[in-house]
Amino acid sequence: MSVLFKLYSGHLAKNMKKNDEANFKNLKHIEGVKAINDLRYFKGKNKYHLFNMYYPEAVKDTKTLPLMIDIHGGGWIYGDKDLNRFHNAYYASQGLVVLSMSYRLLLRTNLKGIVKDLFFFFNYIEKNKESLNISLDNILLTGDSAGGHLALLINAINQNSGLQKMYEVVPFHFSFKMMNLEHPVPFLKDLFTSPGLGNKIARTSMMKAFFGRKYQKNPLYNNSSLNDFIDKAKYPFISIVSSSDDMFKDQTIRTYEELKKSGADVNFKMYENEPHVFEVSFYDREKSLDYNNYVINKFKEIIGDLHER
């Protein structure tokens, strides 16, 4: 990994953390939600192999509740299981069990390492669902920004043996009833190609961080963006959201268009005058609640329909 990328990503991650902490100071604590933090999904002492669990504290048997799994964003260089804690607590307050995991970031591993961590997590909860007291029958998979890319990639890898061999992972044996992609950025090879988002040097540095020094010769390079694997998976109903002030909105709009073209059942909502992942960072804004409540109600509608069959 180049010194340039380490300096650049370290500076960017520091600024993102500073902004998030300033934003979180103004958010209200969500009552009635129990949080169990720092559960471990992989052996060892790595802090990036931990996860949190949120659920309504009034519910005694959490196995009866639907499950949301949240993959945080942060540009693959920043964030952990606590980043979306307000967003996740809000979903839990509406009757869901929510799991959010940390995973190693690009300063510590590459894209294969990130994917392997996520599969370690999914393998763990499948093996330990009884001790966690959760059901894997009705799952909403959520990912914001980089997490949206990872959610799409995990879904595809789990359905394709060739991708499983490339990424060196063991598949899990449950599926998702719905996916929620919040401002997804799943076209890796096109990062920094839009005006104002960077330059060739920044793009090359990031590709080397993802795939290694000779990144174009790495098989994962051509099996990492949505257009590489879109036809290798089936999709549940997908909700996608973006906003007019989001510098990555072109990637999100393209995500919707490509999934729609592939035959997936997709709904897309665009909000005006809001920043990137506003509904995650500011869960209590009017537009945030409008979108988050839409997702919750749609998910409950889908699993309700399934229960009636």
Describe this structure in words.
- The mean pLDDT is 94.
- Helix content is 41%, strand content 16%.
- It has helices spanning 3-24, 85-93, 111-127, 129-132, 146-157, 161-167, 200-211, 226-229, 249-262, 278-281, 286-308; strands at 33-40, 50-56, 67-71, 97-101, 139-144, 178-182, 237-243, 266-271.
- The protein is an alpha/beta fold and 309 residues long.
- It is built from 11 helices and 8 strands.
- Strand 7, helix 9 (249-262) and strand 8 (266-271) form a beta-alpha-beta unit.
- The protein has an 8-stranded mixed β-sheet, sandwiched between helices.
- It has one domain: Rossmann fold, CATH 3.40.50.
- The termini are far apart.
Distance between the termini: 52 Å
State the CATH class.
Answer: Alpha Beta
Radius of gyration: 18 Å
Q: How large a portion of the residues is in β-strands, by DSSP E?
A: 15-25%
CATH fold naming: Rossmann fold
Silhouette = globular
Output the CATH homologous superfamily: Alpha/Beta hydrolase fold, catalytic domain
List keywords for this structure.
16% strand, alpha/beta, 8 strands, 11 helices, eight-stranded mixed β-sheet, Rossmann fold
